[in-house]
Structure formats: C-alpha cells, structure tokens
Amino acid sequence: MKRSLDRKTRIALEPRKQPRQQRSSKVVDRILDAALILTREQGTRTPTTLAIAQRAGLSVGSVYQYFPNKEAILLDLARRWLSSFPEVIERRIKAPRPANREEFRREVRKLFVDTSSIYLENATLMPVIEAISGNADLRPIQDEYDEQIIALYAAWLRHVNPALEDKIARRLGLVMMEVGHACRLVGLKRDRRTFDLIEDDVEAMWLALVSPYLNLD
After folding, report:
1. DSSP-assigned letter for residue 53
2. CA 156, CA 97: separation in Å to the nearest integer?
3. DSSP state, residue 48
4. Distance (Å, rounded) from C-alpha 30 to C-alpha 36?
5. Sign of the CA dihedral 208, 195, 141, 108?
6. What are φ and ψ of residue 13, in 5° steps?
7. CB 12 within 8 A of CB 68
8. Residue 2: inside a domain, yes or no?
9. Residues 11, 103 within the same domain
10. What is the full DSSP assignment across 95-161?
11. 185 contacts 126 by C-beta, under 8 angstroms
C-alpha cells in the first residue's frame, strides 16, 4: 500500500520561501548545485544540511532561510526533473490519432527522442532520483508524479484506441513507465552507445506490449 503524506509532513518538505530577487535565486542555485554534487559523490546516501551548506560556501542558517531540511532540498531537485515528463507525453496525446501501426511507431519514436533528451541532459540528477526513491519520507511525493505519468500514458493509449478499457490502459502505462525508467538508468551508468541500444530495446518492448491492444492495422 502506498504511503501518503499528511499536511504537517508536506509543509515540512516545502521550501521556506521562493526567491524573488536575482541574488536570492543565486543563493538557491548554489544550495541546489551543492546538494547535487554531494549526492552524486555519495550515491544514495543523503548528504546532511551542514555538508550542503559547507559545499555551497554558506552558513547553515542561510540554507535554512530557504529550505527547512535536507529532504526539501533533494525534493526541489527531483521536482525539476519529474515535472519535465508530463508535457512531453501530453504532446503525443494532442497529436492526430495514428491510423496504423507504422504511424503509431513513429509517434513512439518521437516520444522516445523527447524523453531520452530529458534523461541525457539531466544525467547528473539520477543519483538524486535514486536517493528520493530510497527515502521513506520523500517516496510518496515521487509516487504522485508516477501516478500522473501513468495516467498520461493511459490517456495516450486510449487516444490511440478509444475502446481500450481504462484499467488495461493504466496497467500498460505502469509497465511502460517502470520499464522505460529502469532501463534508461542502466544505460546512463554505461556509455552513450549502450544507452542508445538499450533505448532501442525498450522501444521494441513497448511496441510488442501495447500493439495487441491498439486495434491498428
């Protein structure tokens, strides 16, 4: 059963204030950059607020002006990455309905090009995402983004085949999200050629998985 966050916990994980001036924005960027560097160095072990402040060249008090705790810092990093995906999937939903399997294959390729660029351009964020997944307090918030992505994949499949049952579309969306993410993480830990080959493998798996449900010639 998925955990959900109560209001008190949500408030504790929110940034204390949003930067409104350029100077404040630069301070927040220094904090986030320091957290990213430390997380990359330490793997899935979460850096302390003190370590983040020291790496950023700030006092702990300065960090606390913007973030209540280290979890809120990591969450802000993760949100920037996770929030990139819905818009990419929505573009496929808004595209004309493919009339055959070849047109659908081209739509899948467009989606892979767009989503892969998000992974490649943000490769250094992957340790943060893995740290979020392993943090009991933060995982429920990532679950919310996951549910949004699953729902969008399901909506895309139903856009292609309006007769597809929602529960089937959501199950397929879950597999699409989980397999795509896990395999790309593996590719990122190797070289670009391996990443591209794994991406092609995932695309083939996706097509084999969903094609029987889409009623396309």
Report:
1. H
2. 9
3. P
4. 10
5. negative
6. -100, -5
7. yes
8. no
9. no
10. SPPPSSHHHHHHHHHHHHHHHHHHHHHTGGGHHHHHHHHT-TTTHHHHHHHHHHHHHHHHHHHHHH-
11. yes
Q: Which two tokens stand for residue 116?
A: 């892969």
Q: CA separation (Å) from 51 to 36, 48, 57, 164, 201?
A: 12, 5, 10, 51, 40
Domain containing 42 — which CATH number?
1.10.10.60
Please state the length of the chain: 217
Query: Domain check: are 73 and 102 in the same one?
Result: no
Q: Who contacts 209 (Cβ-Cβ below 8 Å, separation ≥6)?
A: 172, 175, 176
Going residue by residue through the chain, which has 217 residues, state the pLDDT in tens, using 9 for 90 and above: 344 445 544 444 455 555 555 567 889 989 988 988 888 787 657 789 999 999 999 999 999 999 998 888 888 887 878 888 999 999 999 999 999 999 999 999 999 999 998 898 878 778 777 777 777 777 777 788 899 999 999 999 999 999 999 999 999 999 999 999 999 999 998 999 999 999 999 999 999 999 999 999 8
Contact 100, 65 (CB under 8 A): no
The phi, psi pair for 90, rounded to 5°, reads -60, -30
